[in-house]
Write a structure and sequence with these properties.
Blueprint (H helix, E strand, L loop, with lengths): L8 E4 L6 H30 L7 H18 L2 H7 L6 E3 H34 L4 H4 L2 H27 L8 E2 L6 H5 L7 H32 L5 H30 L6 H22 L4 H20 L1
Length: 310
């Protein structure tokens, strides 16, 4: 593989060539990264040190916060240091490692969000069997499946990037290593590889989107017969999840839809949107501990009454 490459390092052009803008971005992104770091750590610590860890919703949330923290840390520390550096370089091995870990933890986040949608479906549509269906073994299996799915997705992207020969130039017009910017530096026609990259990401996106769509369609269909108050309480347990899914998926869609013609302005806007969505995710998911019990108290009597009527 090394014989096919004349490049040992890449130069990241970053977000801007103006020092004033870079200093401003440094302060902004540093504050946002610290906020994301503290927010996710607080969520994980508060859940781990309480009885909430026994509830599937918070079990998933703790792992989602961990994956979000790791995902953010794959790009942000390097970006922050590069904003103050005169020359922004990254080694070939470091670039491929960043590409793999970013897609790995990003894939885990997507699949955990999908698992949380299933959890909300069971909690709202089958509250009487919730504890029987969402056992700890099943929750652990869903986390393991999320990690496996993230690995398969990232490994596919990694293989597509690592077997492409790079012989110059070595300037990446981006603020981190990703497949699309790297394909522009390939010594060969990478059109077919680009299609495989789209197929890889598209397949994962399609599967998760269909699962999320079906889950919430069934939820909305099921709560139509509830009273207004019960319907409000039921939907309030998944409103924050829907918000985070929309924010996160919108960022991923925007990132991939503009990958082939990323400009510096789009880079800044994309990264600001990235920070906003991730900074809000831990806060939006941090529902009150009583919400889950309140939800059960609302729906279980209702479902028991419907069962007796039948």
């Amino acid at each position: 593989m090394e014989n096919r490459n004349n490049i040992t390092e890449f130069i990241l052009l970053g977000l801007s060539q103006k020092k004033e803008i870079e200093i401003l971005c440094f302060l902004l992104f540093l504050l946002c990264y610290v906020a994301i770091l503290i927010g996710n750590l607080l969520v994980m610590i508060s859940i781990a040190s309480s009885q909430l860890m026994k509830q599937p919703m918070y079990f998933f949330l703790s792992y989602l916060s961990l994956a979000d923290l790791c995902y953010t840390s794959t790009v942000t520390p390097k970006l922050i240091t590069d904003l103050l550096a005169a020359k922004k370089t990254i080694s070939y091995n470091g670039c491929m490692t960043q590409l793999f870990t970013m897609h790995f933890f990003g894939g885990i986040e997507v699949f955990i969000l999908t698992g949380m949608a299933y959890d909300r479906y069971v909690a709202i549509c089958k509250p009487l069997q919730y504890t029987l269906i969402m056992t700890r073994q099943k929750c652990v299996a869903m986390i393991a499946a999320s990690c496996t799915g993230g690995f398969l997705h990232s490994f596919g992207q990694f293989l597509l990037a690592i077997f492409v020969p790079y012989c110059g130039p070595n300037e990446i017009d981006h603020y981190f290593c990703d497949v699309y910017p790297l394909l522009k530096l390939a010594c060969t026609d990478a059109a077919r590889i680009g299609l495989l990259v789209i197929a890889n990401s598209g397949l994962m996106g399609l599967v998760t989107f269909v699962v999320l769509l079906i889950s919430y369609a069934v939820i909305l269909y099921s709560v139509r017969s509830y009273s207004v108050e019960n319907r409000r309480r039921a939907l309030s347990t998944c409103s924050s999840h829907i918000t985070v899914v929309v924010l996160f998926c919108s960022f991923i869609l925007h990132l991939h839809s503009t990958s082939n013609y990323f400009t510096r302005r789009q880079s800044v806007c994309s990264f600001l949107y990235y920070y906003c969505s991730h900074a809000q995710s831990s806060n939006l998911h941090a529902e009150k501990p009583g919400d889950e019990e309140c939800h059960k108290e609302t729906l279980v009597p209702y479902c028991s009454k419907k069962g007796n009527e039948l």
